[in-house]
Design goal:
Elements lengths: L5 H8 L1 H7 L14 H10 L4 E5 L6 H16 L5 E5 L2 H15 L2 E5 L2 E4 H4 L7 H4 L7 E2 L14 E5 L11 E5 L10 H14 L10 E5 L7 H6 L5 E4 L32 H10 L2 H7 L14 H5 L16 E10 L6 E14 H4 L9 E12 L2 H11 L8 E3 L3
Parallel strand pairs: 1-8, 1-9, 2-6, 2-7, 7-8, 10-13
Antiparallel strand pairs: 3-4, 5-6, 10-11, 11-12
Helix pairs in contact: 1-2, 2-4, 3-4, 4-5
């Protein structure tokens, strides 16, 4: 058996080396080069079956985990069946289109030496029906696949709104399942969480790898859910979570409290500051610090949201009706030029002072315990729909307008 040249063997062994050979090796300015952060991202995705990666925008996490890593998996096992899913089917199809373009392209095995992927690795050459075409595509097949691998395409697209029944992928890459449009209400966030929950039993094997890539958009979204799930291993970095060049410079960086950029090859401190100046505080906290905060003009402060359920209500209080308190507020979301109407909702349980044994109050004085705090983007229709999704039972809903 012929010895495999080191230039080719390393592509089997290292996803980052494969990505660089496929052309992901920086821009003309010498930036956008994979470094320690990207090694961490790839190694973490291979750490255990279920992982999630939360890293700010603009750091190549989707390129690594939704384009390069699927190609690398097929390189090592052409019988894999890989699902790439996103918030919409069109977004997933774009990533699969990029995979097709890379498989139709060349590998740089040595500086200046380019060889077609299909010649170096014939087993991951595209099926002739998939070599043609440009732009987004819903599925791809490689010639090295066998019937034993299953009827699913080698790589196929999915979305939060699509039906996965009947498909049993060996691997799933969930890329930006949440976005600004599907994270505004509790029910929308629940749909994303349910998509992931329902995908798990559809996987080919119990330990089939699932990787989720994204940034948080709101409290209670899929990132928050996975962060509290013991079966999922997560890595999470904000844009100022970089390390100093050497230990003696700790706390002397250009960022807040002397912090350093997460990866200066992708976003410098000046670029981070420019972004922060251009977008709202809420948007920057979620998408770049990867730590959502309440809206700048929100009805609910952080403490209310962190402790939105009162844990020690006296026994029997669950039979009392809840009261919905509703106040329209307004905040900026995303761009400072675009406003987003927002409804603030509280649910409370009234309890009499006599029942609580409080002295100095009239026996029939009502004490209100906050049981829920919510922010719902949109107008009246969206708020009413949220209330319906919240419970739908008539014993809850006595609306009280607030004038704060």
């Amino acid at each position: 058996m012929a010895k495999v040249p080191a230039e080719i063997r390393r592509l089997f062994e290292d996803p980052l080396a494969l990505g660089e050979a496929l052309g992901y090796k920086g821009d003309r300015s010498g930036r956008k080069i994979f470094g320690k952060l990207h090694r961490e991202i790839v190694d973490h995705a291979l750490l255990q079956p279920w992982t999630y990666c939360v890293v700010p925008r603009g750091h190549a996490k989707s390129t690594l985990l939704s384009v390069i890593l699927p190609i690398w998996k097929l390189l090592n096992d052409p019988d894999r069946r890989i699902l790439v899913a996103s918030a919409t089917l069109e977004l997933a199809k774009r990533m699969i289109g990029e995979i097709r373009d890379k498989l139709n392209g060349s590998l740089e095995l040595k500086p200046g030496l380019f060889v077609p992927v299909s010649e170096v690795f014939p087993h991951i050459a595209l099926d002739r029906n998939d070599t043609r075409g440009q732009g987004p595509t819903q599925k791809l097949n490689i010639v090295g696949r066998s019937a034993e691998g299953g009827r699913e395409p080698s790589i196929f697209a999915g979305a939060v709104t699509s039906n996965l029944a009947g498909n049993h992928p060996t691997d799933a890459h969930f890329d930006d399942l949440c976005n600004e449009q599907n994270s505004r209400t509790y029910s929308q966030r629940q749909k994303v969480i349910q998509f992931v929950q329902q995908a798990v039993p559809l996987m080919r094997y119990q330990d089939s790898p699932i990787t989720l890539i994204g940034t948080p958009w709101a409290f209670g979204d899929i990132v928050d859910y996975l962060g509290h799930h013991p079966a999922w291993a997560g890595m999470r970095h904000g844009v100022w979570d970089g390390k100093p060049p050497n230990p003696s410079l700790k706390g002397k960086g250009p960022g807040p409290q002397g912090a350093y950029p997460l990866c200066e090859s992708f976003l410098t401190s000046n670029e981070i500051q420019q972004i922060q100046d251009d977008v709202s505080k809420v948007f920057f906290a979620a998408q770049y610090l990867c730590s959502p905060i309440p809206a700048e003009e929100s009805l609910f402060e952080r403490g209310l949201i962190d402790e939105m359920a009162y844990p020690d209500l006296p026994e029997g209080l669950q039979v009392l009706p809840e009261i919905l308190i509703w106040d329209p507020v307004h905040r900026l979301e995303g761009s400072r030029q675009k406003g987003q109407s927002l409804n603030g909702l509280l649910t409370v349980k009234p309890v009499s002072a006599a029942h609580l044994g409080l002295k100095g109050y009239e026996p029939d004085r009502n004490i209100f315990f906050i049981t829920g705090a919510y922010e719902i983007s949109g107008g009246l229709d969206e708020a009413i729909q949220f209330v319906e999704d919240l419970g739908g039972e008539p014993n809850l809903r006595l609306p009280i307008p607030l004038n704060l």
